[in-house]
Amino acid sequence: MSNNQKKQLSPVQQEYQELQKQREIKRPVVKNCIKAFLIGGLICLIGQFIQDFYIYYFDFTEQTAGNPTVGTLIFITMLFTGFGVYDRIAQFGGAGTAVPVTGFGNAVISPAMEHRTEGFVLGVGGNIFKLAGSVILFGVFSAFVIALIKTILIRWGGL
After folding, report:
1. CA trace torsion 64, 143, 101, 124 (10° rounding)
2. Which of 22, 24, 66, 111 is most buried, by the most CB atoms less than 10 A from its CB?
3. What does pTM read for this prediction?
């Protein structure tokens, strides 16, 4: 608060401002930034391992391995969120879990879990993408399944 604003406050308000400063919880900003950096980096490292797996075992190129890597990371995040593991990781890592694509996966599955008692269509389907729309769910999932089938057929079917 600037000095001009402090001068306009009554003595009781100024006293309250001082008391508030004394009792304010000090946040460990540097520590939180380091934890977010480490967790976000670990998620990205796992993503790189997944991408390398697709490149090595399924003959993807660096350009084409990105989509299945993102789909796999989102799927793993959804599983972890469903089992309650991702929430503990997010408690520790903070923004480090929100920035990568795993934050998207968590944001998708959390509302679905909250409304699952309302049924699959109105509960899960209607609330799974409060941010992006339920059409994306079926589009992304269908594209992932088709790409996986195509990859398997090309790899082992000789098409």
Report:
1. -170
2. 111
3. 0.65
